[in-house]
Design a protein that fits this description.
- This protein has 211 residues and is an alpha+beta fold.
- The chain has a single domain (3-210), classed as 4-Layer Sandwich (Double-stranded beta-helix).
- It is 24% helix and 35% strand.
- It is built from six helices and 15 strands.
- The chain has helices at residues 3-8, 20-27, 58-62, 100-106, 109-117, 155-170, and strands at residues 10-14, 33-34, 43-46, 67-70, 82-87, 91-99, 119-123, 128-132, 134-137, 140-143, 150-152, 174-178, 182-187, 191-195, 204-210.
- The strands form four sheets. Strands 1, 2, 3, 5, 13 and 15 form a six-stranded antiparallel β-sheet that branches. A four-stranded antiparallel β-sheet has the order 4-14-6-12.
- Strand 9 (134-137) and strand 10 form a beta hairpin.
- Helix 5 packs across helix 6.
- It binds fe (ii) ion.
């Protein structure tokens, strides 16, 4: 683990090979890489038009438009702790990151209490379950947020969503422009991320989940 990821919640590594073998080697320095639900250890992400691909995925719902801020694998009991992302091509379509520590710093005690007490209904084709926005695991506090699959359930959660959405518009965003041979590692418990609208057609990313 590096100081950059501990201090900022994300890190860029430049000038490295983005061949699969090297990506896995780098991923292993942050934890244990694990496959997605399609058994892909290294996932290839292509931009897709709306209403294509997996139903209710971000691509299905938003197509080439911007994706809203979210946590990856929010549906898992424990979301992926980190993910690695790299781009096969230079791309003007940015990956955007917000550090939840910046959000928390902007909130008063009452607002933090609302976030902690909020309960959301998380629905996927496989299951429906209740979940919190904030979780604690291995003495680390994490945020779980995916507006695609999480809807407010109790009264706190409606207010929590309003607070979070307000903070998303206010809080400093880190915009990652993609160059070749650039590898991004994100602490997925600490940061939420989004994608700008796709302005170049040739956008292909590789992603590895890490626990
Ligand atoms: Fe994502």
């Amino acid at each position: 683990m590096t100081n950059a990821i501990l201090n900022n919640g994300w890190e860029i590594i430049q000038g490295q090979s983005i061949e699969n073998e090297n990506l896995i080697k780098i991923a292993k320095t942050y934890g244990v890489p694990f496959p997605d639900s399609n058994q892909q250890l290294i996932q290839k992400l292509n931009s897709k038009n709306k209403k294509t691909g997996i139903k209710n995925s971000f691509s299905y719902n938003y197509g080439l438009s911007a994706f809203p801020y979210h946590t990856d694998t929010a549906f898992d009991n424990t979301p992926a702790n980190y993910f690695l992302l790299t781009s096969l091509y230079n791309s003007k379509t940015t990956t955007n990151i917000i550090d939840s520590h910046s959000i928390i710093n902007n909130l008063n005690n009452e607002e933090i209490k609302i976030l902690k007490k909020s309960i959301f209904l998380l629905s996927t084709p496989q299951e429906k379950k209740f979940t919190n926005l904030i979780f604690v695991k291995n003495k680390k506090t994490g945020i779980r947020f995916d507006p695609n699959i999480m809807t407010p359930y109790n009264s706190y959660s409606k207010d929590a969503l309003a607070i979070l959405n307000e903070q998303i518009t206010k809080t400093k965003t880190i915009e990652i422009k993609w160059n070749k041979e650039q590898i991004l590692i994100v602490d997925n418990w600490r940061c939420i991320h989004s994608r700008s609208n796709v302005i170049d057609e040739k956008r292909t990313l590789k992603r590895i989940y890490i626990k």
